[in-house]
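Researcher: Sequence of Lipoprotein follows. Predict its structure.
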Amino acid sequence: MTGLRLMPILLAASLSACSSKPTVTNADYAGQVRDSFTTETKMGGIKLFTYKVWRTSPLERSGSLSNRQRLNVKMKSRSELLRELRAREKRIAQWEAAVEYGLTRTLGQSRYCKGGYIELDRTVLDNEVMIRGECKDGVE
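Model: Prediction complete. Tokens:
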């Protein structure tokens, strides 16, 4: 297994405005993320990789809620809850777009999976994303 540790090169992309993907800039995550890229070659020339990105400073979270705060949460209107849900979905979509860009850059710089890859698994959390894949091109 070959391990390749990369600097947080992630997130310099600015996806086009007409794209359905969110726009991500360097400033969005500058100095706030780390990534790792590990590879593995199996018998028969199968090339696998795991790309993991995590925030070094987690999203701000409020501490425990007081009883009064809990009541306020319960009393939120449907529109407020929907607005919060949409904002969270947007944050996660931007986070995923940034990670996909980072993976593309990492694969390009390492010259791994020159023929592209098949995504085997993806785990997305607020502060961490892990993508596992298999190269379309085998060991050369």
